[in-house]
Design a protein that fits this description.
12 strands, alpha/beta, 2 domains, eight-stranded mixed β-sheet, two-stranded parallel ribbon, 32% helix, Glucose Oxidase, domain 1, single chain, elongated
Amino acid sequence: MSGLSESAREKLTAVSTATLTTLLMKHGLRNRCMQGVSRLTTHDRNMVGEAFTLRNIPAREDIDVVAAYDDYDHPQRRAIETVPPGKILVIDARQDPTAATAGNILMTRLEVRGVAGFVSDGGVRDSSEIAEYDIPCYVSGPSAPTSLIKHHAVEELNTPIGCGGVAVYPDDVLVGDDEGVVVIPAHLAEEIADKAFEQEQMEAFISQEVRGGRPLRGTYPPDADTKARYEEWRKEKENS
């Protein structure tokens, strides 16, 4: 089961990837937002979960034939069946969108098994159907051809990979919203969740202040007076 606390998970469902990237930058982590990976499905809350990974290398014509999928222990199929509920299957497709890394049947299986999401820097087939699924899905785009024309799934599952130009280690925490997917190192996840939730409350107050006519100077970033007004605003909000 996931090691991420329910409190941190709940906070991460309500904060933006923009906020998370800023906080991660403060920790010296500049490359944590996947590039070329966008949301296919639509949801009113963030995708949040820990990474379970599958790596692909370039396909080889004499090995990656259609009959390869007759093997129920094919690494792609094994990943679908072994990713734990509550985690996110993350696929390294070497940022190649020209072949699918899953389709509607595999995505249905993930959804039924209670997997928290699917992320791939490759393509996905049956995209119009998957777009209506409940399981959050982030990919590089639609792609009809089978994965076998470009991808060879390696035997060892749940190892460090690259996805969307970002290093993803097993159990790193992924957060996805309409702007994309951010990868938080596992050891920072609880701290980042707390700080992100606090920052978004502060920014809600600052937005209210700016809308009310206050200038950026002293307001954004907040000076001591603005912070004092924020604390009063927060107390009133908690007591209301």
